[in-house]
Amino acid sequence: MIDTLIFDLGNVIVDFIPLSIYEKATGSTSDGQLLYDLFMSSGIWHELDRGIPLEQVITLTSQKAPQHLHEAIAYVVHNWHDDLVLNTEMASYIKQLQVDFNVYLLSNVSKQFHDFRDRFSILDSFDGLYISADTKLLKPNIEIYEDFLTTFSLQPQQCFFIDDKEENILGAKQIGIKGHVFDQDIEALKKAIYEISS
Question: Is 14 exposed, middle or buried (0-12, 13-18, 19+ CB in 10 A)?
Fold first, then answer.
C-alpha cells in the first residue's frame, strides 16, 4: 500500500525557469542563451547539484565562456535561486495530502538549498528532505533512490514519486518506485494520486 509521496523541488513545488536568470544576468537574450547552453549542455550545472564548491563551478564555466560573460557567470552561480517562486496551488495540495500520506523531498539541488529553504515554509512540514549535493548522488542514477530509501527506512512499494522529468521517474521505477511526470497539470496529478490510493 502506498503511504508515502516523494516530491521533486524545481518545477514541482517551486517554479524555476533557468533561461530567465541567464538573460537577467547578461541583459541580453542571445548572451543569456549562450550562458544557458554553457551550463546545461556541458553538464556543469549537474556538478553544482552534486555539491562541488561554487567557485569551482564558476571557474569551470568561465574557462569555456567569453571574457565579457565572466561576471554574469558568477552572478548566476551565486543568485540563481533568487528567481524561485512557490507553486502555491501545489503547496496547498501538499498540505491536503499530508492528512493521509507521509511526504518527502528528493531533489537534485546545490548546497545553496540550505540557504534558501527557509523561504518555502511548506518544506518545514515534510517528513524528510533529501538533497543531492549532500550525498553527491544525482537522479536518475539508481544509487540516489536506493540511498533515499535507506536514509528514511522506506520500502519502494510504499512510495510514489512526483518529478517533472520523465528520466527521473524511470530511474525510480527501476527499483520499484511508481511515479508521475508532473507537467504543471495539477488535476492530472490529483487523478494519479487518487488512483494509487483507492
Answer: buried
